[in-house]
Amino acid sequence: MLQRHGHETVLAVLTVAALIVLSFQSDAFLTGSNILNQGRLMAEVALVAFAMTFVIISGGIDLSVGSTMGLCAVMTGVFWQGMGLPLPVVLALVPLLGVACGLFNGFLIIRFGMPPLIATLGTLALYRGLAEGISQARSVRGYPEWFAQIGQGSILGVPTQIWILGAALAAAIAVLELTRWGRTVRAMGSSEQAAQFAGLPVTATKYVVYAVSGLASSLAAIMFVSRVSTTRSDMGTGLELDVITAVVLGGTSIFGGRGTMIGTALGLILVQVLKNGLSLAGVKGDGTLVLIGVVLVLTLLAGSLTERRIRR
Amino acid sequence: MTHPILSVRDISKSFGPIRALKTATFDLFPGEVHALMGENGAGKSTLVKILAGLHAPSGGHILVAGTETTLPSPRAASKAGIAVVHQELLLFNELTVAENVFSGHNPMRGGIVDWSAMRSRARELLADLDCHDLDVDRKVGSLSVAMRQRVEIARALNHDARVLILDEPTAALGERDAERLLDIVLKLRARGVGIIYVSHRMNEIFRIADRMTVLRDGTFVGTRPAAETTEGELIGMMVGRAVDQIFPKVDVPIGPPVLEVEGLTSGPLVKNATFTLRKGEILGIAGLVGSGRTELALTLFGITPAQSGTIRLNGKPLRVNSPRAARDAGFAYVPEDRGHQGLVRPMTIRENISMAVLDRISPMGFISRTREAALARKGFDLLGVRAANVEQQVGQLSGGNQQKVVIAKWLETNPSVLILDEPTRGIDVGAKAEIHRLICELAGRGLAILMISSELPEVLAMSDRVMVIADGRISATFDCVGATPEAVGRAMTSRREATC
Amino acid sequence: MLSRSIPAEAPRTGALRRFINEYGHEILVALAIAVLLIGVGLYNPRFISSRNLTSIFSGNAYIAIAAIGMTMVIVIREIDLSVGALIGVLATISGTIAVSGAPVWFAWVVPILCGMAINAITGVLVAYARIPSIVVTLGMMAVLQGALITATGGTWISNLPADFLLAKMTFAGLPMPLVWAIVLTILAGLWMRLTRFGRSLYLIGGNAEAARAVGITVPRRIVAVFMIHGAFAGLATLMFATQLQVIQSTTPPNLELIVITAAVIGGVSILGGTGTVFGSSLAAVLFATIGSALIFVNVSAYWLRACIGALILLTVMADMVRRRRAMKGH
Predict the structure, then answer these.
(1) C212 touches A: beta carbon within 8 Å
(2) What does the angle CA C130 – CA C134 – CA C137 come to, to the nearest 5 degrees?
(3) Which of A33, B139, B250, C242 yields a CA-CA distance of 20 to 30 A from A145?
(4) Model pTM score
(5) What is the ipTM of this complex?
(6) Angle, vertex CA A6, rays to CA A4 and CA A9, nearest 5
């Protein structure tokens, strides 16, 4: 059991170690309000990362999540201000848009046999381009108070986002570990042919996986717009890289077939802990970026070496 | 007295716990065609890979022209004068024939690659092999199998090889192409090249080989000059015991027709298939590699759905357009590529056994752990899988045990028709007998079985009837009496056009 | 005894046909450029004025140069997401040396060497530690971006000496970036066609196992290709960093995606084994042309990225359809 979850264990140990070390660097670090705030800040990345975990385990990848988020953010503004639709209607339409973006990705990958890397690279450009073209780089402001509650409010003293994340995490774990769709995703990632030959619904699952990724991106867009009360076309830039880093750090194999939600959650937490802790300790903002890059490569190196030892 | 150009002494090779080769020994003289024979799993491919520099032997010696040599890489093998044409051709699909022939060793002039010399020399090399209708500027990916093989041989000859190893070269060729290949081999022999010819096609071997070496279970059994041995003796050496002792064929009452196929057509390799399969019957399907046997199975199983024709199962006409539909109808398919199509190797025995029935044990989408554990245990015990428990990764099991897991998976679906594609490929002799016994038992329980196999002895011994496929068409069907090796062999190679 | 009929002459493909088979995609891209130039030029003749053309092509020449190295990486079936960050870092190194009083050619050569060294690390991780290049270069990108901001503290480098500004110089009347792009593309293209090493890239990307079987030491070549790519990133930096009097402290946004896109639209298949630097350079020219054309037909420049996204998808769709058709052929 430990061998199977060695990666998560190492990650957990690292996170705890980082927490301890960084708490000595700054008094503000390990406070309740700071922790809760950090949870708020990482909500968008986390939500998309849960969806991305499914995508990567299934053997694919989705580079378009940041652009989908940007497009959904822009369209939120367009639906609300440009078309004058009531905000609740907008909040129902935007997730549909996210799903549509995801389904288009699935269509390119399945119907045309495009490698997911290049298909989502193309939609990364296309969706961002649409966001830029539609918005003409103008931002939309002035959302109503109640809308800001999602991004800036709290329930029982805990930020709304954390409740949403908690529910998403629980659902994601349940689906991945306990349902037949989770089993299908894992089988496809290891050997798509074997899954197909066993009668598993591989094509349908692929569409769903990318649709969910698009959906997560659209929900992240709503959360983010609510948090900063504006929409801009450059929202979500670089999101895909933060998300993939967290997922891979969490032990999910980029080749597919292997990975856990807990791992992704730990990866997210570790990254956020490092970012926040180091910045409170006085390290310049992007110095943490270096550390995260190094940690990512070292983790993969360690993983690759142990895997080779097992294979021999 | 000539000295051997290549000597192999007591070569052994283990992959973890699996001992693929124990003591392989033989000599090859220049200007000799030396056949290397053995059943699936005897170790022939492993030995070929060692001589090609792709694997390092765990023990033993290799001598090239009398000098002890190590072959740590394909480059070293090439420098030692050894050229190999593998079964899976190693070609570059996006590059031209000329560039493939010279891959890695393009002719140079004035410090740059001389493309025109490359093209004309490639033409010469191919002409030497009596291949005059191959355009050297075509991309290799667009060529037929026979043409691609000739490109590989031309590449091998390009390096002034002293030893040429051909691994199952005629497995996918029609009669005319196979003839041309044998002519090439004889031509090379006349030039003094030593040729190791890996095959189990008796008629070919007796036509061109000077000597034969037999491997069984990774061990050297013996070498015989062609003139002093017979087919029977060789088979006996390959198999180790009397032929009728291995396949415990028990006669089983054959019931009414279960599967009726009429005019089934799908793509270029399934043309107008019409046949009937009865309950309890084992219908053996013979044919050359690439003749359309697997394609027929894939059509029945819904992977490449039929374009026309009818399938009737238990009297009911069916439309099978996906593996799930096939499963629901009562088909089960044990594929020939066990590792990639039959199993998900990193997953456990339990997860693999339950894979084809997940939707039946998952109320509301959540997999019922108790039901899964129960059916895994049942399959594990029933098939006698040799492993610690159901939580073991199937990737770590031996070939025979892996196959048992695949069969267990499909038995769970309660099939009426079981299609087996090369069921004993890559399985050692002991496990083979077990699998054969199992197949007979399943037939006894009323399953109708289609067994595709490239091993004639297996097909002939296990089947109630034999259906031969050539070029996508059913060329002949034989009952027990009429199914002789000669008749079946002839039916396998009929109606194949030569292509170059 | 073999009976032999008089052997027929083997079929041959004419030279023109061969050229089209080999460079079909590149020809398409060139045609697309021509169509745009003619079409928009008719609509607004100022589009094809020498001043506009020169400014389009020189301003974006560094993308073509960076795409040369990226093409080689993609041909061997790898990818490099860190090239944008790398160019940002190399630009700062170059500028720092330039204002420090060292000889100007020092400021030109050192970035190239640094590019090779940094990418050597990436190459080793990909080739020997067997970590997929997408993940290694992701991590490297983070490291480089972070290092850049940390080292510069956000300050830009200004007051660059005039003789440092290579991109503003001319050669035979043409702007230096244009000359460099053309010369480097031709040299690299010929190198990939006429040297054994260059041909081996297509072997490695086309079928790594077969490449090994014909005796190529694949890991060493992978490291070499990443280093060459680093050198070209350095050369691209020189054209990028010497355009203005200042060097920014941030990495050029999305540069890696633009460079990869240039290669893909230029006919370099993401699956490896095919594609030329002629194609990627032409594609870089195509982008620049589209970008300028949009302005001249009064379409907002904000639609450029959408056009490029659509172009990538169409190009790859066509590639996939072609492959599928070829496979069905036999």
Answers:
(1) no
(2) 90
(3) A33
(4) 0.85
(5) 0.87
(6) 130
